[in-house]
Amino acid sequence: MIHFSKYHALGNDYLVLDPANLATLPSPEWIERVCHRNFGLGSDGILHGPLPSDRARFGLRIYNPDGSEAEKSGNGLRIFARYLFDQGLVSGETFTVDTPGGVVACTVQDLGRKITVEMGKVQFLTLNGTIELNGRQYTYHYASIGNPHCVVPVDHPTETMARELGPLIENDPRFPNRTNVQFLRAINRNAIEIQIWERGAGYTLASGSSSSAAGAVAHKLGLVDSQVTVHMPGGLIELGIAEDYAITMTGPTTQVASLPSPTNASPTCKRCQINSSERRNQLFEPLAKNR
C-alpha cells in the first residue's frame, strides 16, 4: 500500500509522495490515474520528495495531473515545506529545496500555517507581444521564474475567460514547452487580481509561481509597487519584488489527510501501463460504464 499526504494551498491541492514509500513513479499514466478526481485520489499534482540533492538540503520533483513534469510550483513548494515541517525534518530555520526550475529558499512560520519562499528572479522573455484568440487581439507578456508564464492584462479576468482562452494560449506554437497562463487586472498600486490556467493541470484556484510572474509583470509595466497582494479565487498571496525582480512569496498551507493509493492504480497495475493514445478509453470509460 502506497501512502500519500494531501495538502492544499488556497485550494491548489497536491499529494506528497515520500520516496521512502515509492522510490520511482511508475509512469505518466499512473500519475494521471492517481490525480484523477473521480477514479483516483484527486489532486492538482504529485510532489515527490524529499530527494537527495547536491545543490540543496532537499530535492523535489513536481508532476502535473496529466503526468507531465513541472519545473517549479510556488504552491507546491509551500506544501512541500509544510510536509517537511510536519515530519520534523525542519523547524523555523530557512532551508533550501532543489527543483528542476532552480534552487529556492523556504521558511516555515506560524506552526506551518504560513510559508515564505524565495522564488528566484523573473526573466522577461517577451513584452508587449500580441496574440489572436477567437478573432480578438490580446497583448501578452511572456516571463519565466524557472517555469514559463504568459501574462495577459484584461479589464475583467473571469473563470470563463481562463477556461476558454487558457488552453489556446497554453498550446500555442510560440510556446514550444507549453505555458502557464494568467489573466491579470491591477486593482491598485499594491494589489492585482488574476485568473489562472495552469499548464498540465487546467483551471486552478491559486498558484504561487503564477502570482510571482504576474506580480513581476505588473511591476515591470509600472502598474504596481514592490509590495503586492495577489487576489485569486482561492485566496491571497503576498509578494515582495526586489529591484532585480527576485520574488519573495508568502502564503498559507493546510493539511488535508493521509491517504492510501487506490489499489487499481498500484505501480504493477497493467491498466496503468498503456500508451497515451489509448489512455482515456482504457483507464476511464470501463469504470464509468459500471457506475
Care to describe what's here?
- The chain is of the alpha+beta class.
- The chain has 2 domains: 3-120 and 254-289, Roll (Diaminopimelate Epimerase, Chain A, domain 1), CATH 3.10.310; 123-244, Diaminopimelate Epimerase, Chain A, domain 1.
- 19% of the residues lie in helices and 42% in strands.
- It is built from 6 helices and 18 strands.
- The protein has helices at residues 28-35, 74-86, 159-170, 208-220, 279-283, 285-289; strands at residues 3-9, 12-17, 46-51, 58-63, 69-70, 95-99, 102-109, 114-121, 123-133, 136-144, 148-153, 180-188, 191-198, 202-204, 227-232, 235-241, 246-252, 254-260.
- The chain has an 18-stranded mixed β-sheet that branches.
- Strand 3 (46-51) and strand 4 (58-63) form a beta hairpin.
- The longest helix is centred in the first third of the chain and has 13 residues, at 74-86.
- The radius of gyration is 19 Å and the shape is globular.
- Mean pLDDT is 91; it is low at 266-291.
Fourth-tier CATH superfamily name of the largest domain: Diaminopimelate Epimerase, Chain A, domain 1
Question: Over the alpha carbons, how many angstroms does the gyration radius reach?
Answer: 19 Å
The mean pLDDT is: 91
Oligomer: single chain
Helix content: 10-25%
- By secondary-structure content and strand pairing, the structural class works out as alpha+beta
Give the strand content. 35-45%
How would you describe the shape? Answer: globular
At CATH level 2, the architecture of the largest domain is Roll
Major pleated sheet: 18 strands, mixed
Structure annotation, total helices: 6
Distance between the termini: 25 Å
* Total tally of structural domains: 2
